[in-house]
Amino acid sequence: MEKYEYFSGTPEIGIVPRAPHAGPLLRHVFEQEHGRGGFAGKVSHTYHLYPPTNWLPDETRSLPQWAPGWESPLRPVGGIHHVLGVAPAEPGRDVYRGMGRLVANATAAMNVTVPRAPMDYFFEHHSATMVFFVHEGRGTLETTFGPIEYKKGDFLIVPKGVTHRFELSPGAHYYWMYESFAGDPEKSEAPTTGQFITHSRSDYRFPRSLDTRNESGRFEIIAKVDGVYTRRVHPTHPFDVIGWRGEYLPYRFAVEDVRPLVADRSHVPPSGHTIFRLPGCYLCVFTVRSVEKEGMWVPFFHKNLDYLETLGYHFGDFFSGGGVVGPGMVSVHPVGLPHGPKPRSLQAFMDGANAGVHNEVGIMADFANPAQVSELALGLSRPDYMNAWAGYTSDPRFAYAPGRLAEARALGERLADARDALRPPEDEGRA
Ligand SMILES: [Fe+2]
Fold first, then answer.
1. Which of 81, 182, 226, 281 has CA 20 to 30 A from 130's CA?
2. CA of 341 to the centre of ligand 1 (A)
3. Whole-prediction pTM value?
4. pLDDT in tens, 203-213
5. How far is the CA of 333 from the centre of ligand 1 (A)?
6. How far away, in angstroms, is 311 Cα from ligand 1 center?
7. 81 CA distance to ligand 1 middle (Å)
8. What ranges make up the beta strands (E) of 11-158?
9. CA of residue 187 to ligand 1 center, whole Å
């Protein structure tokens, strides 16, 4: 070993030339650039045993109706809240052939998949970077850059164009998948709270163990461009990579690494829980955290005037749900339509209850308007979700009462100007 060691500052694994497109190694192995922004954005280079264009002539096919649920037609959602029941598993469906679109706008989409079957092909999404959330299941995401093990509660980021397949471990699997069509997810950071809230880049887990395959056979790759699926067949294994370098990479991020912003004396708005920003969409995690001590611990009633809101329930007693929703379900709250705590939750708050901890994990993705809902989602919609707020018309505490105005005025005199109990006691010895 030399006296001192160095690293280059650019992630790299395995056998790579000293710099991209340079050096004698390129006369012996095949360099491929994964380039964003017309090669002016993020890039990675992979070094292959065989040319990545060695597809078999005459084997390329367009595959109509390959993933029908993924292309479920979209409809305007109008002014009705929906809650979508748990999506059913369909026999024979794998991660992508069973993908079901739920909600989409021009630049982002939310999907659900309940895979039962293995993938006997490799997949490339040529239109979107994908963010998976593993609600249930474990396995290995095999990629050109190496394998990534995952389990329940993990996010998996699969950048646009990266060749991959899911190797599912035994047991149930249930994933939500968010597509970003116009750019990669960016880590969300507020200027005043810095780069370690709500998580750190060091929480990301990139592949490091190359599993190079020098194999011959028939290797099918399905590529998706918009709603068109195309199969091509290669005579060598696509994971014939002996090294890579770059920053355009798949990675894993565990939900327990979200370290949320909490406030004792106010209510952190949903946007304070954002982990990723996507063009036209922001992705938040509501995770296990302290309940506000003096501030409102239920959400305020709100109209989100620019975004349709989706919330996937992962586990726990969702604090505003009032017992209406369960794990695996997704609520869809359209742009502009007021919502907030269900009556049971609000009653608990008004009665002075405080659980101490919000014991829950929910994944929220909000889609800039105009956003639409799919026919597949409407098929999962539970009837009567709008009745979840029915207590506000039937419970005497919330319903019309002739004396309500006078009561509010009297309370206002006493409470509207009340300050938080903060000031130190008056100094009695002061003159
Ligand atoms: Fe909301």
1. 81
2. 9
3. 0.95
4. 999 999 999 99
5. 7
6. 9
7. 11
8. 12-14, 30-35, 43-48, 61-62, 74-76, 82-84, 100-104, 108-113, 122-125, 129-136, 139-143, 146-150, 154-158
9. 21
